[in-house]
Design brief:
single chain; alpha/beta; Arc Repressor Mutant, subunit A; D-Maltodextrin-Binding Protein, domain 2; five-stranded mixed beta sheet; 14 strands
């Protein structure tokens, strides 16, 4: 029965993970009709409904979830075994999927991945940009990259970047017009460029600290902008004060296009970590990736 169902099980898992026949078909390189036929054949063979389909979404049924829970560990072990056999040829190979936020990808991962990919041309890496807190197990990722404070305690965490600072910046024109805040509480009298948290949906409360005492401040302003480059541009154009990673505005600070405010209230904190489940067995290519990304002082 396994031999008969293996192709259909693979198709079902792809659709269940993507929550979309269209996306799954693109990933597998098959037509939507062929994918739909394979899943329907599996449901008929098992006499079970595995997916709930609507005009807008696809989701696994309870029976589908149980099959996924049984199927994924076995397929992971098979992938690892096959990759290990490939390594015997002396050429590291494999497919790796990583989830990370835009800033981590641009500032940290991509610069480190370029020499890694050139050195190991048979290792394929998929980078998925998502600024929310992604369930990497459910999403089918080998690992994720997030700030250390966001990593769940049951994950293995490897530091892959230096400590960071979030700083508040504004244009000289804005400060000349509205004045300079001297404490975080002064921000309540200023126009601030905010962002909405992708996971909870709430507006971000700016975080500060002094003498080891944390302080969170809710700010207001004309703009709420999630993309980081747009927030920086809005600050540069004088629309208000923005809270951004220090490395993203280093050149603008050096040129005087932007000025830092409340600098004493913006301490460094632990930067980005690669995280992955301790219970998951990874292919040899993943060990090479960890070493390539690992932060070294």
């Amino acid at each position: 029965m396994l031999k008969e169902n293996f192709h259909e099980l693979h198709c079902f898992l792809a659709v269940a993970k993507a929550r979309s026949f269209t996306q799954a078909a693109g990933t597998l390189g098959v037509s939507q009709s062929a994918l739909s036929h394979a899943v329907k054949a599996l449901e008929t063979r098992l006499n079970l409904r595995l997916l709930t389909r609507t005009t807008r979404s696809v989701a696994p049924t309870e029976a589908g979830e149980r099959i996924i829970a049984c199927l994924e560990p076995g397929l992971r072990e098979l992938d690892v075994a096959l990759d290990t056999i490939v390594q015997m040829s002396g050429l590291p190979a494999g497919n790796l999927r990583l989830s990370a936020g835009d800033h981590a990808i641009v500032s940290l991962l991509w610069p480190k991945l370029k020499p890694f990919l050139r050195r190991y041309p048979a290792i394929h890496v998929e980078l998925v940009a998502d600024n929310g807190l992604v369930d990497i197990v459910r999403g089918g990722f080998d690992a994720g990259v997030r700030l250390g404070e966001s990593v769940e305690k049951d994950m293995v965490a490897v530091k892959v970047g230096p400590d960071m600072r979030m700083i508040t910046v504004a244009s000289p024109d804005y400060l000349a017009r509205y004045g300079t805040p001297h404490t975080p509480h002064d921000l309540q009298d200023h126009r601030c460029i905010n962002m909405r948290l992708p996971t909870s949906g709430g507006v971000y409360h700016w975080e500060f600290a002094q003498a080891g005492k944390p302080l969170r401040v809710r700010v207001e302003g004309q703009l709420i902008i999630n993309p980081l480059p747009a927030r920086i541009d809005a600050a540069r154009e004088g629309f208000g004060i923005a809270c951004v990673p220090e490395d993203t505005v280093a050149d603008l600070l050096r040129s005087g296009t932007l000025l830092a405010v409340l600098d004493d209230w913006c301490p460094a904190f632990a930067g980005y970590y690669l995280y992955y489940p301790s219970r998951r067995q990874h292919p040899p290519a993943f060990a090479l990736l960890i070493e390539a990304l690992r932060h070294r002082e």
